[in-house]
Design brief:
By secondary structure, the chain is of the alpha/beta class. The protein is built from 15 helices and 15 strands.
Length: 382
């Protein structure tokens, strides 16, 4: 059986890791011969050459004459221009590939409008599976496209139950086609290996860590603005922010404006976040939305307390307040600071409450392992 994955990207996002881990889980645990391949539009997947070789995953090149290095990535209008260019160059090549190779399944992750447009106008023996990556914004175009193609889509995979319920409520798809398939976030063997690596930045300092793309969604401005008050209460505390993105300059300026250059450090992108998590007091997330929120689960597996906004949909579903982590009311400064003090008190405590929260977090993260993902997806790939 052949399964093709469609996940073109113009900048590295967590979904790429989910695709690699999904294929890895099928290759590891399936007793049947399943040939999983990733469609490579403009050689964007070549950046994962080492991982692809290690996991023995093959690419299918569409050989489109585009170089991702020269395509605009930042900003709403520039990124939309890139999407249009990719759409124009790839849609007919994808049609030819599906007709020629006739894979059993095509699992669609990103830039879904390209394969779904084809599905509206053509009939295929290949079964199309729409993977919802993150909390979907149901704008006019997306709702229109999903409704037109919905009858021909074989299945819809959702990362959380809340997202599934949202789609059912909106009545865009047949409810019988919608399934929760948890993301394969936790690769136990790899994480244990990565955790052992050492870091130089602020080694031995007391710090909390936040990880994510430097974008509006992650709401780092809220975190930085509040850290000036936190620093007054906890002068020994530092904040490490790991990630790159379009708001990097604005966030750097905000750090300077608040005179926090010796307290907050924007470290940029790191290929291995686990040593930073391992040495941190706890992990903090201030996002406006997540679905599910890979780094929440990674932090739990690294045996760290997670302090997060109660945003839709991942944190609300993953975190049970004071049982396996802490939640504060999104964008509520007073609740944020009160809950922050609770977390700090617990971090320095040796009470069983702390151990139980960490253990419960570890159990929750284990539900998003490669094996758990395979158990979810196996019966759906009949």
């Amino acid at each position: 059986m052949n399964i093709y994955y469609w996940c073109p990207f113009i900048s590295n996002v967590a979904t790429t890791t989910a695709v690699l881990n999904s294929i890895d889980s099928i290759n590891r645990f399936s007793k049947k011969k399943i040939d999983c391949k990733i469609i490579n539009i403009f050689k964007e997947w070549n950046v994962f050459e080492k991982e692809l070789i290690n996991l023995k995953i093959n690419l299918i090149d569409l050989n489109i004459p585009l170089d991702i290095k020269y395509l605009p990535k930042l900003g709403f209008f520039k990124s939309r221009l890139t999407y249009f260019i990719v759409y124009f160059f790839s849609i007919f090549k994808l049609h030819s590939l599906i007709k020629k190779d006739n894979p059993k399944f095509l699992i669609i992750h990103l830039l879904t409008s390209i394969p779904l447009t084809l599905l509206i106008f053509f009939n295929y023996d290949t079964k199309f599976i729409l993977r919802i990556s993150g909390l979907p914004k149901l704008n006019v175009w997306r709702s229109f496209l999903w409704k037109l193609s919905g009858n021909k889509i074989d299945k819809i995979f959702c990362p959380t139950l809340l997202t599934k319920n949202l789609l059912i409520k909106k009545k865009i798809f047949d409810e019988k086609k919608i399934f929760v398939v948890k993301d394969p976030v936790i690769n136990v063997k790899n994480i244990k290996k990565k955790m052992k690596q050492d870091i130089d930045e602020l080694h031995g300092e007391k710090y909390i860590v936040s990880v994510g793309r430097l974008s509006k969604q992650k709401n780092f401005k809220f975190l930085i603005n509040n850290f000036k008050f936190i620093s007054r209460r906890y002068p020994e505390l530092h904040l490490l922010v790991i990630g790159e993105g379009e708001e990097k300059t604005a966030l750097n300026n905000l750090v300077k404006k608040n005179n926090l250059e010796n307290k907050i450090f924007l470290l940029g992108k790191k290929n291995n976040i686990y040593p930073y998590l391992h040495k941190a007091l706890f992990f903090i997330l201030t996002s406006d939305w997540e679905d599910p929120g890979f780094v929440i689960l990674e932090s739990m597996f690294a045996r760290k307390i997670v302090f997060s906004s109660n945003c839709n949909n991942g944190p609300k579903e993953i975190i049970e307040h004071k049982k396996n982590g802490f939640l504060y009311k999104i964008n509520d400064i007073e609740d944020f600071n009160n809950k922050f003090d609770e977390v700090m008190k617990l971090v320095y405590s040796d009470k069983n409450d702390k151990k139980n929260i960490i253990l419960n977090g570890l159990k929750k993260a284990s539900l998003y392992s490669l094996f758990s993902h395979y158990k979810d997806i196996k019966p759906l790939l009949n």
